[in-house]
Amino acid sequence: MKVREVLSQGRGALITAKIDDASLEAEVLLRYALGLKRVQLYLQLDRELSFKESENFWQLIRLRLNNEPTAYITGHREFYGLDFDVDGNVLIPRPESELLVETALGLALEYPMHTIADVGTGSGALAISLAVTLPRVKIYATDISSSALGVAQSNCQKHGVLNRIRLLQGDLLEPLPEPVNLIVANLPYVREEALSQVNTRYFEPHLALDGGPDGLEAIRRLGTQVGAKLRLGGGLLLEIGLDQGEAVMVFFRHLFPSAEIKLIPDGCGIDRVMSLLLPPAILLTESGVSNAVMLS
Ligand SMILES: C[S@@+](CC[C@H](N)C(=O)[O-])C[C@H]1O[C@@H](n2cnc3c(N)ncnc32)[C@H](O)[C@@H]1O
Protein backbone atom coordinates (compact mmCIF):
# COMPACT_ATOMS: atom_id res chain seq x y z
CA MET A 1 0.00 0.00 0.00
CA LYS A 2 1.20 3.53 -0.79
CA VAL A 3 2.05 6.18 1.81
CA ARG A 4 -0.93 8.33 0.76
CA GLU A 5 -3.36 5.39 1.15
CA VAL A 6 -2.09 4.44 4.61
CA LEU A 7 -2.23 8.10 5.66
CA SER A 8 -5.82 8.35 4.48
CA GLN A 9 -6.83 5.13 6.28
CA GLY A 10 -5.15 6.26 9.50
CA ARG A 11 -6.94 9.60 9.30
CA GLY A 12 -10.24 7.77 8.70
CA ALA A 13 -9.70 5.60 11.81
CA LEU A 14 -9.08 8.70 13.97
CA ILE A 15 -12.08 10.55 12.50
CA THR A 16 -14.32 7.55 13.24
CA ALA A 17 -13.09 7.63 16.85
CA LYS A 18 -13.93 11.39 16.96
CA ILE A 19 -10.34 12.37 17.68
CA ASP A 20 -9.73 16.10 17.12
CA ASP A 21 -7.33 17.22 14.41
CA ALA A 22 -7.39 13.72 12.90
CA SER A 23 -5.54 14.77 9.72
CA LEU A 24 -2.68 16.39 11.58
CA GLU A 25 -2.46 13.61 14.16
CA ALA A 26 -2.39 10.85 11.49
CA GLU A 27 0.35 12.73 9.65
CA VAL A 28 2.44 13.24 12.81
CA LEU A 29 2.15 9.55 13.70
CA LEU A 30 3.04 8.41 10.17
CA ARG A 31 6.04 10.74 10.10
CA TYR A 32 7.13 9.36 13.46
CA ALA A 33 6.70 5.74 12.32
CA LEU A 34 8.76 6.40 9.18
CA GLY A 35 11.26 8.80 10.77
CA LEU A 36 10.50 11.50 8.18
CA LYS A 37 10.22 15.26 8.26
CA ARG A 38 7.02 16.78 6.87
CA VAL A 39 8.43 17.72 3.51
CA GLN A 40 10.03 14.27 3.12
CA LEU A 41 6.67 12.59 3.79
CA TYR A 42 4.97 14.63 1.10
CA LEU A 43 7.75 13.82 -1.38
CA GLN A 44 7.17 10.10 -0.75
CA LEU A 45 3.38 9.93 -0.99
CA ASP A 46 3.51 7.45 -3.89
CA ARG A 47 6.10 5.16 -2.32
CA GLU A 48 5.00 1.66 -1.28
CA LEU A 49 5.29 1.04 2.47
CA SER A 50 7.03 -2.09 3.72
CA PHE A 51 5.03 -4.49 5.89
CA LYS A 52 7.08 -3.47 8.93
CA GLU A 53 6.56 0.27 8.33
CA SER A 54 2.85 -0.26 7.97
CA GLU A 55 2.73 -2.37 11.16
CA ASN A 56 4.64 0.32 13.09
CA PHE A 57 2.16 2.98 11.98
CA TRP A 58 -0.92 0.94 12.89
CA GLN A 59 0.57 0.19 16.30
CA LEU A 60 0.80 3.97 16.91
CA ILE A 61 -2.75 4.51 15.66
CA ARG A 62 -3.95 1.84 18.11
CA LEU A 63 -2.27 3.68 20.99
CA ARG A 64 -3.95 6.93 19.85
CA LEU A 65 -7.33 5.19 19.58
CA ASN A 66 -6.79 4.16 23.20
CA ASN A 67 -6.67 7.94 23.93
CA GLU A 68 -2.93 8.10 24.56
CA PRO A 69 -1.93 11.64 23.52
CA THR A 70 0.17 11.90 20.36
CA ALA A 71 2.78 13.93 22.24
CA TYR A 72 3.38 11.04 24.66
CA ILE A 73 3.48 8.52 21.80
CA THR A 74 6.13 10.50 19.92
CA GLY A 75 7.77 11.96 23.07
CA HIS A 76 7.69 15.49 21.64
CA ARG A 77 5.57 18.66 21.64
CA GLU A 78 6.28 22.00 20.06
CA PHE A 79 5.77 25.07 22.24
CA TYR A 80 6.65 28.66 21.38
CA GLY A 81 8.52 27.40 18.30
CA LEU A 82 10.75 25.05 20.32
CA ASP A 83 10.69 21.27 20.49
CA PHE A 84 10.20 19.85 23.99
CA ASP A 85 10.66 16.26 25.15
CA VAL A 86 7.60 15.09 27.08
CA ASP A 87 6.59 11.94 28.89
CA GLY A 88 3.93 10.86 31.37
CA ASN A 89 5.69 12.75 34.18
CA VAL A 90 4.78 16.15 32.76
CA LEU A 91 1.79 18.00 31.41
CA ILE A 92 1.86 18.33 27.62
CA PRO A 93 2.46 22.07 27.09
CA ARG A 94 -0.69 23.70 25.67
CA PRO A 95 -0.73 26.35 22.93
CA GLU A 96 -2.84 28.63 25.16
CA SER A 97 0.06 28.85 27.64
CA GLU A 98 2.10 30.73 25.02
CA LEU A 99 0.12 33.80 26.14
CA LEU A 100 2.01 33.64 29.47
CA VAL A 101 5.32 33.75 27.60
CA GLU A 102 4.20 36.60 25.32
CA THR A 103 2.90 38.64 28.28
CA ALA A 104 6.11 38.03 30.25
CA LEU A 105 8.22 39.14 27.28
CA GLY A 106 6.08 42.29 26.99
CA LEU A 107 6.77 43.11 30.66
CA ALA A 108 10.48 42.45 30.16
CA LEU A 109 10.52 45.21 27.54
CA GLU A 110 8.91 47.69 29.95
CA TYR A 111 10.45 46.91 33.33
CA PRO A 112 13.90 45.98 34.64
CA MET A 113 13.95 42.19 34.71
CA HIS A 114 16.84 40.37 36.36
CA THR A 115 15.14 37.32 37.80
CA ILE A 116 12.06 35.30 36.82
CA ALA A 117 10.50 32.28 38.55
CA ASP A 118 8.43 29.70 36.65
CA VAL A 119 6.39 27.91 39.31
CA GLY A 120 5.23 24.38 38.50
CA THR A 121 7.57 24.17 35.53
CA GLY A 122 6.67 20.64 34.34
CA SER A 123 8.55 20.08 31.05
CA GLY A 124 10.19 23.48 31.52
CA ALA A 125 8.31 24.90 28.52
CA LEU A 126 7.69 28.36 30.03
CA ALA A 127 11.08 28.77 31.72
CA ILE A 128 13.01 27.60 28.66
CA SER A 129 11.02 29.73 26.19
CA LEU A 130 11.78 32.75 28.38
CA ALA A 131 15.45 31.81 28.85
CA VAL A 132 15.98 31.41 25.11
CA THR A 133 14.44 34.83 24.40
CA LEU A 134 15.89 36.70 27.42
CA PRO A 135 19.55 35.66 27.55
CA ARG A 136 20.48 38.07 30.37
CA VAL A 137 17.79 37.00 32.83
CA LYS A 138 18.37 34.47 35.61
CA ILE A 139 15.51 32.01 35.82
CA TYR A 140 14.33 29.76 38.62
CA ALA A 141 12.02 26.87 37.76
CA THR A 142 10.28 25.04 40.59
CA ASP A 143 8.18 21.89 40.72
CA ILE A 144 7.06 19.63 43.51
CA SER A 145 7.61 16.59 41.30
CA SER A 146 11.21 15.36 41.01
CA SER A 147 10.35 13.32 37.92
CA ALA A 148 8.94 16.42 36.20
CA LEU A 149 12.16 18.26 37.05
CA GLY A 150 14.11 15.42 35.39
CA VAL A 151 12.24 16.11 32.13
CA ALA A 152 12.75 19.88 32.55
CA GLN A 153 16.48 19.30 33.06
CA SER A 154 16.87 17.33 29.84
CA ASN A 155 14.92 20.03 27.98
CA CYS A 156 17.22 22.70 29.46
CA GLN A 157 20.20 20.72 28.17
CA LYS A 158 18.63 20.30 24.76
CA HIS A 159 18.09 24.06 24.42
CA GLY A 160 21.46 25.06 25.91
CA VAL A 161 20.06 26.96 28.90
CA LEU A 162 20.95 24.65 31.79
CA ASN A 163 23.48 27.20 33.06
CA ARG A 164 20.81 29.94 33.29
CA ILE A 165 17.86 28.04 34.72
CA ARG A 166 18.07 26.83 38.29
CA LEU A 167 15.75 23.88 38.83
CA LEU A 168 14.40 23.65 42.37
CA GLN A 169 12.20 21.00 43.91
CA GLY A 170 9.60 22.07 46.45
CA ASP A 171 6.20 23.53 47.18
CA LEU A 172 5.33 26.54 44.98
CA LEU A 173 7.60 29.51 45.85
CA GLU A 174 9.15 27.96 48.97
CA PRO A 175 12.39 26.78 47.30
CA LEU A 176 13.21 30.24 45.83
CA PRO A 177 16.42 31.53 47.43
CA GLU A 178 15.59 35.22 46.75
CA PRO A 179 12.65 37.44 45.74
CA VAL A 180 12.32 37.82 41.95
CA ASN A 181 11.10 40.49 39.51
CA LEU A 182 8.52 38.27 37.84
CA ILE A 183 6.65 35.10 38.72
CA VAL A 184 4.93 33.11 35.96
CA ALA A 185 2.80 30.14 36.89
CA ASN A 186 0.60 27.64 35.13
CA LEU A 187 -0.52 25.72 38.19
CA PRO A 188 -3.10 22.92 38.29
CA TYR A 189 -6.48 24.65 38.00
CA VAL A 190 -8.97 22.00 36.89
CA ARG A 191 -11.91 21.60 39.29
CA GLU A 192 -11.98 18.12 40.86
CA GLU A 193 -15.40 17.34 39.38
CA ALA A 194 -14.27 18.46 35.91
CA LEU A 195 -11.18 16.24 35.94
CA SER A 196 -13.14 13.41 34.32
CA GLN A 197 -13.79 15.69 31.31
CA VAL A 198 -10.08 16.19 30.57
CA ASN A 199 -9.68 13.70 27.74
CA THR A 200 -6.01 13.00 28.49
CA ARG A 201 -6.70 12.44 32.21
CA TYR A 202 -5.57 8.82 32.28
CA PHE A 203 -2.18 9.74 30.88
CA GLU A 204 -1.24 13.18 32.22
CA PRO A 205 -0.13 13.48 35.87
CA HIS A 206 -3.00 14.12 38.27
CA LEU A 207 -0.68 16.48 40.14
CA ALA A 208 -0.48 18.72 37.05
CA LEU A 209 -4.25 19.05 36.63
CA ASP A 210 -6.06 18.77 39.95
CA GLY A 211 -6.82 22.20 41.43
CA GLY A 212 -9.08 20.93 44.24
CA PRO A 213 -12.83 21.48 44.67
CA ASP A 214 -13.00 24.87 42.88
CA GLY A 215 -9.76 24.56 40.93
CA LEU A 216 -8.10 27.37 42.85
CA GLU A 217 -6.36 25.54 45.71
CA ALA A 218 -2.80 25.86 44.39
CA ILE A 219 -3.42 29.42 43.13
CA ARG A 220 -4.67 30.55 46.55
CA ARG A 221 -1.70 28.98 48.33
CA LEU A 222 0.63 30.66 45.85
CA GLY A 223 -1.06 33.98 46.62
CA THR A 224 -0.14 33.70 50.27
CA GLN A 225 3.54 33.09 49.38
CA VAL A 226 3.88 35.86 46.77
CA GLY A 227 4.41 38.73 49.22
CA ALA A 228 7.67 37.24 50.45
CA LYS A 229 9.04 36.25 47.04
CA LEU A 230 8.21 39.15 44.71
CA ARG A 231 10.31 42.33 44.55
CA LEU A 232 8.78 45.79 44.79
CA GLY A 233 7.32 46.76 41.43
CA GLY A 234 7.42 43.09 40.44
CA GLY A 235 4.81 41.15 38.50
CA LEU A 236 2.85 37.92 38.75
CA LEU A 237 1.37 36.22 35.68
CA LEU A 238 -1.00 33.36 36.34
CA GLU A 239 -2.71 31.13 33.81
CA ILE A 240 -6.35 30.59 34.80
CA GLY A 241 -9.18 28.34 33.70
CA LEU A 242 -12.48 29.24 32.03
CA ASP A 243 -14.69 31.32 34.34
CA GLN A 244 -12.03 31.60 37.08
CA GLY A 245 -11.06 35.20 36.26
CA GLU A 246 -13.44 37.00 38.59
CA ALA A 247 -12.75 34.77 41.61
CA VAL A 248 -8.99 35.01 41.11
CA MET A 249 -9.13 38.83 40.75
CA VAL A 250 -11.21 39.19 43.93
CA PHE A 251 -8.78 36.98 45.85
CA PHE A 252 -5.66 38.86 44.75
CA ARG A 253 -7.26 42.32 45.16
CA HIS A 254 -7.93 41.42 48.78
CA LEU A 255 -4.32 40.30 49.30
CA PHE A 256 -2.73 43.17 47.34
CA PRO A 257 -5.14 46.14 47.41
CA SER A 258 -2.71 48.53 45.74
CA ALA A 259 -1.55 46.25 42.97
CA GLU A 260 -2.58 46.79 39.36
CA ILE A 261 -4.54 43.66 38.49
CA LYS A 262 -6.12 42.74 35.18
CA LEU A 263 -7.25 39.78 33.10
CA ILE A 264 -5.69 39.19 29.69
CA PRO A 265 -7.79 37.43 27.03
CA ASP A 266 -6.45 35.01 24.43
CA GLY A 267 -7.10 35.31 20.70
CA CYS A 268 -10.62 33.86 21.19
CA GLY A 269 -11.52 36.48 23.81
CA ILE A 270 -11.26 34.01 26.73
CA ASP A 271 -9.54 35.37 29.86
CA ARG A 272 -6.45 33.17 30.17
CA VAL A 273 -3.97 35.13 32.24
CA MET A 274 -4.23 37.21 35.39
CA SER A 275 -1.57 39.91 35.53
CA LEU A 276 -0.67 41.56 38.84
CA LEU A 277 1.88 44.36 39.15
CA LEU A 278 2.98 45.38 42.62
CA PRO A 279 3.43 49.09 43.29
CA PRO A 280 7.03 50.16 43.91
CA ALA A 281 6.43 50.68 47.65
CA ILE A 282 5.79 48.59 50.72
CA LEU A 283 2.13 48.08 51.54
CA LEU A 284 0.34 46.02 54.10
CA THR A 285 -2.73 43.92 53.35
CA GLU A 286 -5.71 43.84 55.69
CA SER A 287 -4.26 40.70 57.23
CA GLY A 288 -1.07 42.62 57.91
CA VAL A 289 1.10 40.65 55.48
CA SER A 290 3.67 42.70 53.61
CA ASN A 291 3.24 42.32 49.87
CA ALA A 292 6.79 43.25 48.99
CA VAL A 293 9.93 42.69 50.95
CA MET A 294 12.85 44.40 49.34
CA LEU A 295 13.88 46.97 46.79
CA SER A 296 14.52 45.75 43.27
C1 LIG B 1 -0.48 22.59 34.74
S1 LIG B 1 1.13 21.89 34.95
C2 LIG B 1 2.10 23.13 34.12
C3 LIG B 1 3.38 22.63 33.55
C4 LIG B 1 4.12 23.67 32.68
N1 LIG B 1 4.41 24.88 33.43
C5 LIG B 1 3.31 24.01 31.45
O1 LIG B 1 2.75 25.11 31.39
O2 LIG B 1 3.24 23.17 30.54
C6 LIG B 1 1.37 22.22 36.67
C7 LIG B 1 2.72 21.80 37.24
O3 LIG B 1 2.73 22.21 38.61
C8 LIG B 1 3.34 21.20 39.40
N2 LIG B 1 2.84 21.36 40.77
C9 LIG B 1 1.67 20.93 41.29
N3 LIG B 1 1.58 21.27 42.59
C10 LIG B 1 2.71 21.95 42.88
C11 LIG B 1 3.22 22.56 44.07
N4 LIG B 1 2.52 22.56 45.21
N5 LIG B 1 4.43 23.15 44.03
C12 LIG B 1 5.16 23.17 42.88
N6 LIG B 1 4.74 22.59 41.73
C13 LIG B 1 3.52 22.00 41.73
C14 LIG B 1 2.97 19.90 38.71
O4 LIG B 1 3.88 18.88 39.06
C15 LIG B 1 3.01 20.32 37.24
O5 LIG B 1 4.28 20.07 36.69
Explain this structure.
This protein has 296 residues and is an alpha/beta fold. The chain has helices at 3-16, 22-34, 38-43, 51-65, 70-74, 98-110, 125-133, 146-158, 206-209, 217-229, 245-255; strands at residues 76-79, 82-85, 115-119, 138-143, 165-169, 180-185, 230-239, 260-265, 271-277. Strands 5-4-3-6-7-9-8 form a 7-stranded mixed β-sheet, sandwiched between helices. The longest helix is centred in the first third of the chain and has 15 residues, at 51-65. Mean pLDDT is 93; it is low at 286-296. The structure holds S-adenosylmethionine.
Supply the number of structural domains: 2
Mean pLDDT: 93
Number of strands: 9
Q: Which structural class best describes the helix and strand composition?
A: alpha/beta
Q: Given the structure, what is the number of helices? A: 11
CATH topology of the largest domain: Rossmann fold
Q: Give the cofactors and ligands.
A: S-adenosylmethionine
The CATH class of the largest domain: Alpha Beta
The strands making up the biggest β-sheet line up spatially as: 5-4-3-6-7-9-8
Task: Please identify which CATH superfamily of the largest domain we are dealing with.
Answer: Vaccinia Virus protein VP39
In the CATH classification, which architecture of the largest domain applies? 3-Layer(aba) Sandwich
Helicity, as a percent range: 25-40%
Largest sheet properties? 7 strands, mixed
